[in-house]
Design brief:
The protein is built from 10 helices and 21 strands. Helix 5 (143-157) packs across helix 6 (170-180) and helix 7 (292-301) packs parallel to helix 10 (380-413). The chain folds into 3 domains: 2-58, 2-Layer Sandwich (Alpha-Beta Plaits); 66-255, 3-Layer(aba) Sandwich (Rossmann fold); 273-393, Rossmann fold, CATH 3.40.50.1220. The model has no long low-confidence stretch (mean pLDDT 93). The chain is of the alpha/beta class. It is globular. Helix 9 (345-348) links the parallel strand 19 (335-339) and strand 20. It has helices at residues 14-19, 44-48, 85-101, 116-124, 143-157, 170-180, 292-301, 310-314, 345-348, 380-413, and strands at residues 2-6, 26-29, 32-35, 54-58, 72-76, 78-79, 82-83, 105-111, 129-134, 161-165, 185-186, 191-194, 200-206, 211-215, 223-227, 244-248, 278-282, 305-308, 335-339, 356-361, 374-377. Strands 11-15-10-5-8-9-16 form a 7-stranded parallel beta sheet, sandwiched between helices. Bound molecules: flavin-adenine dinucleotide and iron/sulfur cluster. Residues 208, 283-285, 287, 309-311, 323-328, 340-342, 344, 346-347, 350, 360-363, 366, 379-381 line the site of flavin-adenine dinucleotide.
């Protein structure tokens, strides 16, 4: 890391110096020239100032001795009395990484009161040390006190890696905390691995999913990574947990916030796509909005959810919360039926972990077939209605067989 140092003794024309910065980061503060946090490190001030007022200084950041940072930590998200399942998935990944380098798994949770059942649950998933922060100020997520908690936990434990769920909370908490330690953060990782020297291999799609970027934070600790829900597997519960619980408190001043929660409005409960066992997804090949009725009917028959590619979301045919892919949701259902979907990397990145993939496409060379377990080459507007009729016929035959079996049973008991 580096910063711009100001040699005040060389600064003469303050107005001209301020004008050097296109981002307004050079200001006059208390009669001195100062560089504010608006600085983007473009270095134009160094290049264009002839008197040597500005100098690039490489910071000697404390804590870069990576051997002083030890263990894999997870931020536990508890909301509305429930542990977000992504936190449990993070614990599973933390165990895998920690096992490779012989480290421990730590977790930090905050709330007004953390339930004993939650504590036991976390220990049952294999946390070695669980740090609990309980205070009335932590009842709702507010960025300042939660960042203070997370910072305190990291200062106490000094973990080498910090994993945070890529949720709306995780996405604001992780970067803010990472900035306090002046360290790196990789958002939305899809693969995580670790080197013997504790460098975290952080892999995520970049440039619209066309390349997989491989990122390492070699000089700073801790190494922050966020991961979206359903990217990693749920860990197994262990029968005899041995982890310990550490209760921590913070001085009241650290729990202050400028945000006052007046009232909490609950959004209408919607079934999240990520939790569906069965998904029927439609793409441009469906042809028309009218034809979506086949997709909806099939989803209903299979007790599943409807989803779509970005193309259909942009067309306004499907609710944006139902978009699968890089800029949508990541799903891992037991069954997904992809109807008239080409199989772009941006779409498949959000569903290729599904247990069973059935694809219907008119083009035998469609990319979706390379990841499908069952591929059907055909017109989706003919294949899906046929499939619906077959399922209905099978269901009717099952009902008939059940009724016949019940009749036989009644006759034999009478
Ligand atoms: C930064 C970025 C992020 C993106 N994020 C996402 C994302 O999150 N999710 C997403 O889905 N996309 C995303 N995209 C868009 C993505 O690149 C593709 O354009 C999109 O997924 C294609 O959608 P599609 O398969 O519905 O349409 P198309 O690619 O046009 O495919 C339509 C398919 O239907 C088939 N077909 C046509 N007629 C029939 C028929 N009668 N019966 C059967 N099959 C038929 C065709 O053979 C074709 O394979 C993103 C793009 C960018 C640049
Ligand atoms: S480095 Fe660029 S952004 Fe920073 S103060 Fe200089 S001119 Fe402004």
């Amino acid at each position: 890391m580096s910063h711009i140092a100001v040699h005040q003794n060389k600064a003469v024309d303050y107005k001209a110096l301020s004008a050097l910065c296109p981002f307004g980061a050079i200001v006059v503060d208390n009669g001195h020239i100062a560089v504010t946090s608006a600085c983007r490190m473009c270095k134009l001030c160094i290049k264009n100032d002839t008197r040597g007022v500005f100098e690039l200084v490489e910071d000697d950041v404390a804590g870069t001795d990576t051997s002083e940072w030890n263990g894999i930590a997870v931020f536990i998200e508890i909301y509305e009395m429930k542990i977000h399942p992504v936190s449990l998935e993070m614990i599973g990944k933390a165990q895998e990484l920690a096992g490779k380098i012989g480290h421990s798994v730590y977790a930090a949770a905050a709330g007004e009161k953390i339930h004993t059942a939650h504590v036991e649950e976390l220990l049952h998933y294999g946390v070695d040390e669980l740090y609990l922060y309980e205070a009335p100020e932590l009842k709702h997520f507010r960025i300042e006190p939660y960042t203070a908690v997370f910072e305190d936990f990291i200062v106490r434990r000094r973990p080498s890696v910090v994993l945070v769920g890529g949720t709306s909370i995780g996405r604001v908490l992780a970067p803010r905390t990472a900035a306090r330690f002046r360290t790196g953060l990789t958002a939305d990782c899809t693969i995580l691995d670790i080197q013997e020297n504790t460098d975290l291999d952080q892999i995520r799609p970049a440039f619209g999913g066309n390349i997989m970027a491989h990122i390492r934070t070699t000089k700073h600790r801790p190494q922050f990574a966020t991961v979206r829900y359903k990217i990693f597997n749920m860990p197994e519960r262990i029968t005899n947990p041995t982890g310990t619980v550490i209760h921590c408190t913070l001085p009241p001043a650290k729990l202050n916030s400028t945000i006052e929660i007046l009232k909490v409005h609950h959004k209408e409960k919607v079934k999240h796509l990520e939790e569906a066992d069965v998904i029927v997804a439609a793409g441009r090949g469906i042809g028309s909005r009218e034809n979506l009725k086949y997709i909806e009917y099939l989803a209903e028959l299979l007790d599943g959810e409807v989803a779509g590619t970005r193309t259909l979301i942009e067309a306004g045919w499907i609710d944006p919360r139902r978009q699968i892919g890089l800029s949508g949701r990541t799903v891992r259902p037991r069954l997904i039926i992809a109807c008239g979907i080409s199989g772009s990397v941006q779409f498949t990145a959000g569903m290729n972990g599904s247990e069973k993939i059935i694809a219907v496409n008119i083009d035998p060379n469609a990319a979706i077939f390379s990841i499908a377990h069952i591929g059907i080459v055909g017109d989706v507007t003919k294949v899906i209605p046929e499939l619906i009729e077959n399922i209905k016929a099978d269901a009717a035959a099952d009902v008939k067989a059940d009724a016949a079996a019940e009749g036989t049973a009644e006759r034999s008991t009478s």
